[in-house]
Specification:
This protein is an all-alpha fold. The protein has one domain. It has helices at 3-25, 47-68, 75-98, 108-132, 143-169, 191-207, 210-237, and strands at 44-46, 105-107. Strands 1-2 form a two-stranded antiparallel sheet. Bound molecules: NADP nicotinamide-adenine-dinucleotide phosphate (NAP). Residues 33-34, 99, 101, 104, 159, 163, 166-167, 169-170, 175, 177-178, 180, 192-193, 196, 219, 222-223 line the site of NADP nicotinamide-adenine-dinucleotide phosphate.
Length: 253
Amino acid sequence: MTEIQIHTAAVWTVIALAIVTFIYLSRITAPYGRHYAGTGWGPHIDNRLGWVIMELPTTAVFALIHFAGEAAWNLVPLVFLAMWQGHYLHRTFVYPFRTRTAGRKIPLTVVGSGVLFNSLNAYVNARFISSIGEYGADWLADPRFLLGAAIFLTGMALNIHSDNILLRLRKSNDAGYSIPQRGMFRYVSCPNYLGEIIEWAGWAIATWSLAGFAFFIYAAANLAPRARSNHAWYRQRFSDYPAERRALIPGVY
Ligand SMILES: NC(=O)c1ccc[n+]([C@@H]2O[C@H](COP(=O)([O-])OP(=O)(O)OC[C@H]3O[C@@H](n4cnc5c(N)ncnc54)[C@H](OP(=O)(O)O)[C@@H]3O)[C@@H](O)[C@H]2O)c1
């Protein structure tokens, strides 16, 4: 098998996993955060440590594969590397230390499946931008790059802003929940997920690649069912939860 064939098989594996994940998570809610049951799903570790381990391949594996590529030091691959790492260095090394999840744990099965998927996805996307894809410096002026980068940055701003609103709801070190009222939470229960999905749509357009599209599909397949579960959880937990609020897409879903 040539490397292109291996890479193509990996890309289609991500797309197949997106379909499986969507079906699975539409029936079973992943047991972390508010849906953490405390038992089952094998051994558990500290929630914050679990997040760092789970997200580590998105930075480390991605960087290793990127710099093994022939075009790693060309301008456009470096811009893509900066976009990717801009998201994932924050997600791996900043975000987990800002959460107030005292005493909460996460099952190793969730962490392990995250590590496996993130490693595969790091290969799929890093290998494409630094080796398989062909990007001249003029790609930075291409409408697809400009539109994709703008969408990516918009999604990132929504994701971080919405996560910040949630993190500020917990003033002390307790792990309680309240109804978020600010920002896009006025319209949907999970604007942080919406921002994340928009980000990877932007990535897919900016890289104009099946690799980027596969990850966008996976992110949506992973986060849409969880948004539904979070939305149902809010409605069940708070009798005064705003009735007009939707799960993920304002006025639609
Ligand atoms: N690309 C992907 O496929 C993917 C997959 C998963 C997550 N992510 C991203 O990772 C980030 C975190 O995901 P998540 O599923 O943990 O998000 P989440 O359920 O919205 O929780 C985010 C943080 O806010 C806390 N929190 C949530 N709702 C709260 C409320 N009503 N009151 C007080 N605190 C609240 C949570 O605490 P608890 O943990 O104690 O509930 C957690 O620390 C998001 O930005 C998401 O987009 C991306």
